[in-house]
Specification:
The complex is a heterodimer of chains A (109) and B (116). By secondary structure, chain A is an all-beta fold. Chain A contains no helices and eleven strands. Chain B is built from no helices and eleven strands. Chain B has 116 residues and is an all-beta fold. Classes of the chains: A mainly beta (109), B mainly beta (116).
Chain lengths: 109, 116
């Protein structure tokens, strides 16, 4: 299957700080999605990216579709305690989405 | 709109027992997916249905796992017999379009299975 590597695996930040995480692969993808999963819940879609180089925002979240189509990036500005959770990237090719292993975000008030 | 409904939320069984999970997708979503999420990992696709037909079950351990979607709406995933390594969260998702490329997937809250 397609391998997606997310980094960092986990991060501890102070409330108000900005956060950056990324997702890389040796494979080319046609669509990138970013999801957030709260404890005990299913993943919730945050941002969808469809073209190489595309930059899309959703409130304090901004994501980019890498120009090589092998990576994607997610930034969160001015983090707040409710940003705590696991962030997953998902890349699409061969008619299915493949998920990374997630970045666990902890925010200290 | 109502989300993807799953039940039960939690299940604890002994190894070699059988278990079944139920999913009701968002109304009108023709595509339904079952994912397995082991602790600390991302979701892994087990099976994908388009209406009541199987599109992809390449990663479903067919010797013990089975799934059906008889009327093209709700679906059941069964494990028989369960092994310790089946302990995971089983997520159901649905999408309006085939493969969900343009609208992503909507996930349910999952069923957490513990096999002891």
């Amino acid at each position: 299957g397609q391998q997606l590597n997310q980094s960092p695996q986990s991060m501890f930040i102070q409330e108000g700080e900005d956060v950056s995480m990324n997702c890389t692969s040796s494979s080319i993808f046609n669509t990138w999605l970013w999801y957030k999963q709260d404890p005990g819940e299913g993943p919730v879609l945050l941002i969808a990216l469809y073209k190489a180089g595309e930059l899309t925002s959703n409130g304090r979240l901004t994501a980019q579709f890498g120009i090589t189509r092998k990576d994607s990036f997610l930034n969160i500005s001015a983090s707040i305690p409710s940003d705590v959770g696991i962030y997953f990237c998902a890349g699409y090719n061969f008619n299915k989405f493949y998920f990374g292993s997630g970045t666990k975000l902890n925010v200290k008030p | 709109e109502a989300g993807v409904a799953q039940s039960p939320r939690y299940k604890i069984i002994e190894k070699r027992q059988s278990v079944a999970f139920w999913c009701n997708p968002i109304s009108g979503h023709a595509t339904l997916y079952w994912y397995q999420q082991i602790l600390g990992q991302g979701p892994k696709l087990l099976i994908q249905f388009q209406n009541n037909g199987v599109v992809d079950d390449s990663q479903l351990p067919k010797d013990r796992f089975s799934a059906e979607r008889l009327k093209g709406v709700d679906s059941t995933l069964k494990i028989q017999p369960a092994k310790l390594e089946d302990s995971a969260v089983y997520l159901c998702a649905s999408s309006l379009e085939p493969h969900g490329r343009n609208d992503g997937y909507t996930f349910g809250s999952g069923t957490r299975l513990t096999v002891v």
